[in-house]
Design a protein that fits this description.
heterotrimer; A alpha+beta; B alpha/beta; C mainly alpha; A: alpha+beta; two-stranded antiparallel sheet; 6 helices; 10 strands; C: mainly alpha; globular; binds ligand MGD; binds iron/sulfur cluster; binds molybdenum atom
């Protein structure tokens, strides 16, 4: 039973947004919407300024409020890798899951259902890497099975300091940022 | 032996060896593309990207007849299978609803952007007639061509056949010119594009400006990330805390325009502390003593008040560079038109690399190789009766390419002889040349302005005839055989059909030649014949390239260590620390510092640069890319912003020293920039009505660059010499 | 603390720059849901009372079930209008998600209807005598039901129980959304329940003041309906039993609601920074003014005082307090739904 996670090296990431375009083309995300995005956090003053650039998306939380609050089961945890998915045909568009996500990782697709990052499960099941990971020109994104101690994600987490987003929200996010 | 002859000697082997290996690689990578074009299902077509001039090799996937995605070609030495965001977003260039759709002939005043749609035949007839008239009345030299990028190959060919020597591109006088001249003066060779920088193997990378990560030249950024990942020392010199700066061990927030002072101080430290590569200098250097002596006054203490970089940091960074040499790379930069001392500053960068012994060494600046793919055997071009107008009397003695702004000047002044016609291919002169008023004045002096573009750009707005070209995903172009780390030859081929009545550049150029009575210069029936003929010359074939897109030659020696002969194309045959050429021409034989003019009180120096997801002024209507960044913002130091009562997101207008006022644009109040300058991404603030999606979004740096300093050595136009005040803008 | 600049390049509709998922529909839905919950509890209680107190004045209690059916349907319509994927609404009833308040809610609502219909039937002869006379079947059904005490008691208890569930659910719907710290309090359920009770009582109270002229006592079904309306709108003679009861009820509900509101905010203020920030949105932030004026002032304190004075016979009884309470309840839903969407965790920087 795999447990898919993403490990992103903020030291290599340059914020180019290739991951964002790749997601938009791969999945035909409509203009004006996005499943992943870049944030920049600047701390300190010149010349000791620090900048952390992050590629963010649904964290596929181990403890996903978006799934718990869904009245129809449209939001669910996929048997493969524990990925959090939405079944459009079950979604009534009540937006509870949007309100439940502390990361605002979801949006309402113009067709009316809740949409978000799927960890490219369709690609992953074909043995491919997620689209965003596969294009990243700085190779700063890593995707793999946290339950496999030999996977490069496991090794990276073991070997480098890292953090998740909003641990205090208690959702147990599964995207880790190397610092 | 100069690099050209070196290339020649390696090619014969190259092609033959590769021809074998290529097929197998091809089939592995792209089995699908061999099958006949299916309407349904997937089709993968290799080609190379054209959103910028890096020309990464890509594989476009067509799903059920519609362009789905574009990915890097895994066999590509440039992209290693990963494109930059602009390349990935190239689909948006194909589907851009604002594209030019049919040939247009002007019906109203120039610049009113009013045309009538015409047939290709009528448009080209119109152009040919007027070109003949110009040739008859003023001579063919009076027709100038501005063409940027590989797509211009055939238009260039036609215009040369027509008989004009006046062919220029902004890639020299507005871009890498000063750098290439500075390096050629020192090493007898320029840096080229793609740059010969061995970032992948460097232990210490020094970036002066060069905002890699925002400047998204793919291989450079990939190798930069590798260097960062490897823990190489990164030193970034930039008035702005660039993305690259955020990865640096040493960030030097320098006073804009004072880099030469820092470079001299660094070299002073290396020389006085005997940290430089003495053997290398002794072996390859010329005039070192005179040079070393000239450095005496440039102590870090002297540089401090100029640059704002404290002496300890200058010493520490100099020592770090020395510690890592020869695998220390002081990046030559690319867009080097900053302050007016640019060729000399670039020469100082060249000399710093020489002191560190990094030229020709692993982790420094390598010797690139390229495949030798013979050109097509065309008839000889007619010899122009008059010399080019851009650099009369070699006013700029070291200019190694045509100067766009020189052609513009001649067009205005009609000196040394009148320029009556412009053909403009793939360059938006209104955005790429400084001082738009001068460009407009030049245009007013023309009898004919033809613009070949894909979208109704600003320059197209002034044209008499607008010719809509097929997008790069819809056409063949000439082969790409750039010099690089590894030799390769790459093909651009159509992936999808043009959505409307657009035509490929080669077709336009060939048709025009026909109407000009220059058929003789187009012996080939269509471009496939042309390409196949060239490829056969390298023991390859079009069929093969259509399958795999890129064919790589075997690795060639690229370092002295690997046996590259240490020969330099300078007069002395050595690395010229002291330049007699410069002395003879009345310039400083060794770089000498002149302080820049400080900003007037309350004004900021206007700086500009790149955003990773946009290319110049060409991508703002690309819906995929504009979705990532739809307008640029003005970076303003946080403290200054507070002083002006501004916060991020507030609207302002910029007013420059000549009273020019910008579009409404938002402020980014940030610690990431010095208090004496503001910064914006180039390419925004479009004014062309046809660019519906981009019209009026953000502000144009070019509009505010009314002033430029011309580099006395080579005629480059330094553009970081404008000062702006920031005016809060109440109305939303 | 070093200055922090945070920039996000996300720009999704309804999400950025600030969350605005829910407009008027959800506040209205929560409001009507609470109001109906209140009415159900009150009328449920009445139905039970009626058991051992046959001949006491029914007054306006008897109209509560019918009124509730109307209001609840309006609320459900508002909820439906908010759905983005309307055609799939039936999916709600193909499953029960124990962790989803909204799933609970949709099933509770499914039970609420029969309970309301039952009590409506029970009270129909008193509520719509003319209608019953015109459609004798209804009357027979009603008396048949009344004849079975178990059934009457079941109806009464069901209404009370479901009313309580419904009332609490309208609050839990929000409080379960941990991502919005302001909502993240166990007291939101009880708060909405008692707000529901106070508005419910106020609604009945309001009815008791409405008077309309007598209508003629013959004619066709139309007349029947009209005169029926007239009949059940006619309040009991002033100062009647139920009337004062309501005043007392309403005041106690309001007082409890007030206490819960205070505890709710107090709880947030003693919790994490995010929760405190959430509470500040109401106390001092952009929502401060409407909160203090509409919810606390006009919605609770003022009506409390007025009804107290009325009870003391210091001032004439008017519909003013009732109207204020009803308005305050609506404002409470709008402000909590609005401010809640503005309250968020801020990404940690480490
Ligand atoms: N995404 C993207 N990438 C591109 C392009 C594009 O259009 N889009 N264009 C490509 C082309 S053709 C070129 S030429 C390059 C240009 O890219 P570069 O060659 O990197 O251009 P520069 O002008 O060196 O970089 C601009 C940086 O220089 C800093 N700067 C400004 N003035 C000074 C100064 O006085 N001293 C110092 N030390 N720094 C200064 C600015 O703050 C900014 O960070 O980008 C290439 N890459
Ligand atoms: N103010 C300011 N000026 C600058 C710069 C700056 O940073 N600031 N940068 C300088 C540098 S480094 C450079 S390299 C130059 C670049 O200058 P340009 O090469 O002029 O770059 P663009 O402004 O993108 O203009 C390119 C034009 O070609 C069109 N085009 C795009 N694709 C095609 C195609 O396939 N076929 C045809 N026919 N046309 C096409 C685009 O629509 C656009 O109108 O600008 C220089 N000038
Ligand atoms: S593609 Fe890679 S480098 Fe670029 S922004 Fe995304 S994660 Fe960062
Ligand atoms: S990030 Fe948001 S949407 Fe994704 S699993 Fe976690 S809570 Fe659900
Ligand atoms: S919007 Fe769709 S996915 Fe989200 S909670 Fe409602 S039904 Fe479930
Ligand atoms: S994993 Fe797939 S869906 Fe998720 S952001 Fe990356 S590309 Fe988009
Ligand atoms: S760097 Fe980007 S835009 Fe330029 S050629 Fe490569 S992929 Fe295309
Ligand atoms: Mo350039």
């Amino acid at each position: 039973m795999a447990r898919y996670i993403m490990v992103i090296d903020t030291r290599r990431c340059v914020g180019c947004m290739d991951c964002v375009v790749a997601c938009k083309t791969e999945h035909g995300i409509p203009e004006g919407y996005t499943r992943d995005w870049i944030t920049e956090t600047v701390r300190g003053e010149q010349p000791t300024t620090q900048l952390e650039i992050r590629s963010e998306r649904c964290n596929h939380c181990d403890n996903p409020p978006c799934v718990y609050c869904c009245p129809t089961g449209a939001s669910h945890i996929h048997e493969r890798g524990g990925v959090v998915l939405v079944t459009p045909e079950k979604c009534i568009g009540c937006k509870a899951c949007l309100a439940a996500c502390p990361y605002n990782a979801r949006y309402i697709h113009p067709d009316g259902y809740a949409d978000k990052c799927t960890f490219c499960i369709d690609r992953v099941e074909k043995g491919l890497k997620p689209a965003c990971v596969s294009v990243c020109p700085t190779h700063c994104m890593h995707f793999g099975d946290a339950d496999d101690p030999l996977s490069d994600v496991s090794r990276l987490l073991a070997s480098r300091p890292n953090h998740t987003l909003l641990p205090e929200a208690g959702t147990k996010p599964r995207i880790f940022y190397l610092t | 032996m100069n690099p050209l002859s070196r290339r020649r000697f390696l090619q014969i082997s190259a092609a033959s060896i590769v021809a074998a290996g290529a097929a197998s690689r091809a089939t592995r990578a792209l089995a699908a593309s061999t099958s006949p074009v299916p309407r349904r299902g997937l089709r993968r077509v290799p080609t190379f990207c054209d959103i910028c001039f890096w020309k990464c090799n890509a594989i476009a996937t067509v799903r059920d007849g519609r362009l789905w995605k574009i990915e890097g070609n895994p066999d590509d030495p440039l992209s290693h299978g990963r494109l930059c965001p602009r390349g990935t977003g190239g689909i948006g260039a194909h589907t851009d609803p604002d594209r030019l759709r049919a040939p247009l002939i002007r019906t109203h005043e120039r610049g009113e952007e009013k045309w009538r749609e015409v047939t290709w035949d009528e448009a080209l007839e119109y152009v040919a007639e007027r070109m003949k008239k110009i040739a008859a009345e003023h001579g063919p030299e009076s027709m100038a061509l501005f063409a940027h990028g590989i797509g211009g190959a055939f238009v260039r060919h036609t215009l040369k056949a027509y008989g004009t020597p006046n062919i220029a591109a902004p890639s020299f006088a507005q871009c890498r010119g000063p750098r290439d001249v500075g390096f050629t003066l020192t090493y007898g060779e320029d840096v080229g594009s793609p740059e010969r920088t061995d970032i992948a193997n460097t232990d210490c990378l020094v970036l002066i400006g060069s905002h890699l990560g925002e400047n998204m030249h793919n291989t450079q950024v990939q190798e930069f990330a590798t260097a960062v990942g490897r823990g190489a020392t990164i030193i970034v010199v930039d008035p702005r805390f660039s993305v690259a700066a955020s990865k640096a061990k040493h960030y030097l927030p320098i006073r804009p325009g004072t880099d030469l002072a820092l470079l001299l101080a660094w070299m002073h430290v290396l020389v006085t502390e005997k940290l430089y590569d003495a053997d290398y200098v002794a072996k390859h250097g010329y005039g070192f003593e005179a040079f070393a002596a000239s450095l005496a006054p440039y102590t870090p203490e002297w540089a401090y008040p100029e640059t704002g970089i404290d002496p300890d940091t200058i010493r520490a960074t100099a020592r770090e560079m020395a510690r890592c040499r020869p695998a220390t790379l002081v990046h030559p930069g690319r867009h080097s038109n900053w302050a007016g001392d640019d060729a000399q500053r670039s020469r100082a960068i060249a000399l710093l690399n020489a002191l560190l012994g990094s030229w020709g060494r692993k982790g420094g600046l390598y010797y690139p190789a390229s495949m030798d793919v013979p050109g097509y055997p065309y008839p000889k071009y007619p010899k122009p009766k008059r010399p080019p107008v851009d650099n009369p009397g070699k006013k700029y003695p070291f200019a190694s390419e045509a100067i766009t702004t020189g052609v513009r000047e001649a067009t205005i002044s009609a000196q040394p002889y009148p320029i009556k016609g412009w053909m403009v291919y793939a360059t938006n002169l209104m955005q790429s040349l400084p001082n738009q008023a001068e460009t407009i004045r030049a245009i007013q002096a023309l009898d004919l302005l033809v613009v070949i573009d894909v979208i109704p750009s600003e320059i197209a707005g002034w044209a008499d005839v607008v010719l809509p070209e097929s997008n790069y995903l819809e056409r063949y172009d000439d082969l790409n055989v750039d010099l690089f780390r590894e030799p390769y030859v790459a093909l651009r081929q159509p992936v999808v059909e043009s959505p409307h009545d657009q035509k490929p550049g080669w077709w336009i150029a060939k048709q025009l030649a026909g109407k000009l009575g220059l058929e003789a210069y187009y012996p080939w029936r269509d471009i496939e014949e042309y390409l196949d003929h060239r490829l056969k010359g390298a023991n390859l074939s079009l069929a093969q390239l259509k399958q795999c897109g890129v064919v790589r030659g075997p690795h060639q020696p690229i370092y002295f260590e690997e046996g590259v002969p240490a020969e330099f194309g300078t007069p002395s045959g050595k690395i010229e620390f002291y330049s007699n050429q410069l002395a003879k021409a009345g310039f400083d034989p060794v770089p000498r510092y002149q302080p820049p003019e400080p900003p007037p009180a309350g004004a900021y120096r206007l700086l500009y640069g790149r955003a990773p997801m946009h290319s110049f002024s060409r991508t703002q209507t690309n819906r995929l890319l504009s979705d990532l960044m739809s307008e640029n913002v003005v970076w303003l130091n946080a403290t200054e912003a507070r002083r002006l009562g501004l916060k991020s997101g507030d609207w302002v207008r910029l007013r420059n020293q000549d009273g020019v006022v910008s579009n409404r644009v938002r402020v980014k109040a940030t610690e990431r920039i010095r208090p004496d300058c503001v910064y914006m991404v180039h390419g925004f603030g479009h004014t062309a009505r046809g660019l519906r999606h981009a019209l009026g979004k953000g502000a144009s740096d070019t509009q505010l660059i009314t002033r430029y300093k011309v580099d006395p050595l080579m005629g480059g136009t330094a553009m970081n010499v404008n000062f702006v005040t920031v005016e809060p803008q109440m109305e939303a | 603390m070093t200055p922090v600049e945070f920039t996000t390049y996300r720009h999704n509709p309804l999400i950025d720059p600030g969350l605005h998922l829910w407009g008027w529909q959800i506040p209205v839905y929560l409001y009507l849901g609470g109001l109906v919950a209140g009415l159900m509890i009150l009328s449920g209680y009445h139905v039970l009372r009626a058991q051992w107190d046959r001949d006491r004045a029914h007054g306006h209690y008897v109209t509560a079930p019918l009124l509730s059916l109307a209001l609840l349907s309006a609320g459900m319509l508002a909820l439906f209008l908010d759905l983005e994927h309307k055609l799939y609404v039936w999916r709600l009833y193909l499953t029960f998600r124990v962790t989803s308040p909204m799933s609970w809610g949709s099933w509770i609502l499914l039970l609420v209807y029969p309970a309301l219909v039952a009590s409506a039937l029970l009270t129909l002869p008193d509520a719509l005598p003319r209608l019953v006379r015109l459609v004798p079947g209804l009357g027979r059904l009603a008396s048949a039901m009344e004849a079975r005490p178990i059934f009457v008691q079941a109806t009464g208890f069901a209404n009370i129980a479901l009313g309580v569930m419904l009332g609490i659910y309208t609050g839990v719907l929000l409080s379960s959304l941990g991502a919005r710290p302001l909502w993240n309090s166990a007291l939101l359920g009880p708060l909405f329940l008692f707000s529901g009770l106070s508005t419910g009582a106020a609604a009945l109270h309001l009815l008791s003041h409405l008077r309309v002229p007598e209508a003629r006592d013959e004619g066709d079904f139309g007349d029947a309906l009209i005169s029926a309306l007239v009949h059940w709108l006619r309040p009991p003679e002033a100062g009647a039993e139920g009337h004062r009861k309501l005043e007392h009820a309403d005041n106690s509900f309001l007082t409890i609601e007030f206490a819960l509101l205070a505890l709710f905010l107090g709880g947030l203020l003693t919790s994490t920074a995010a929760h405190q920030a959430g509470a500040q949105l109401l106390l001092t932030g952009p929502w401060g003014a409407p909160f203090w004026v509409l919810v606390v002032g006009a919605g609770i304190v003022l009506p409390l005082t007025l009804q107290y004075l009325q009870a003391q016979r210091k001032i004439r009884a008017t519909i003013v307090p009732a109207v204020l309470v009803l308005g305050g309840g609506l404002a409470l839903r709008f402000i909590l739904v609005g401010a809640g969407q503005a309250s968020a965790w801020t990404i940690s920087l480490s």
